Amino acid sequence: MDGGATPPAVDAATPEAAAFLLVGLLAGAHCLGMCGPLVSVYADRLSKQDGTNALTLRQVRQHGLFNLGRAVSYAFIGGLFALAGTLFFGAFDSVTAVGSGVRATTGLLVGTAIILTGIGYLVGRSAAIDRLTPDVVTRLFGRISGWATARVDTLVGGPRILGLGAIHGLLPCPIIYPAYLYAFATGAPLRAAALLGLLGLGTIPTLFLYGTLLGQVSARRRATLHRALGAAFLVLGYISLSHGLMLLGIHVPHLHIPFYQPLG
């Protein structure tokens, strides 16, 4: 984007990775709206299978596997979105000016979408954001969730609970949509997979505590976390937006994070 030595890859990725982890940590309370009912169901089944309401080592293991399945699912799908970005941008690389314009436009669009999402959470309009999911998608994945809930007894007791967690990477979620868009804009599958994996790992503390100890998060606390989540999305959106502006020759303060670069 500008002159000077390229910073080390680890240093370049640190602000980006921290932002994704922060989004995950703050998004955990939001995830309860989607994952909470299923978590309650399988937590109840685990307790009945163990014949006790006390938390057992087996239950801790199963909750851990469930959440690991979610994180792996996010990472895999994020990598697929980034691979799609690689193919999309690569189609324009033969014409340098066109390729740069496409990457700049993508950065601007993705950054704007993520920033608008962040503003929605900041001003308490998260319910409106939830409604952005098309009805046909909601119905489709509602069936997937219903299928999983109906078979929860056969899935919770062993390693197959990983699959129960992995299903959540496919369920409609306004937290994950911006992250998948960001992954597409990077055009770097391995990096995107790592970032989405971090986001998934970040959601684990809240869902784990919900399934084992808490049982609920107050509406007031959830609203506070949503506002903080909005601020985190503003950071991610600005990273993408500033990248697009820099490609257009508009110099703005930015982080040295490598987005998609053509081969050669």
TrEMBL record:
Top-rank taxon: Archaea
InterPro entries: UreH-like_TM_dom (IPR039447)
Family annotation (Pfam families): DsbD_2
Keywords, sorted A to Z: Membrane, Transmembrane, Transmembrane helix
Urease accessory protein UreH-like transmembrane domain span: 20-238
Transmembrane segments: 17-39, 71-92, 104-123, 161-180, 192-217, 229-252
Record-given protein name: Urease accessory protein UreH-like transmembrane domain-containing protein
Organism whose genome encodes this protein: Haloferax mucosum ATCC BAA-1512
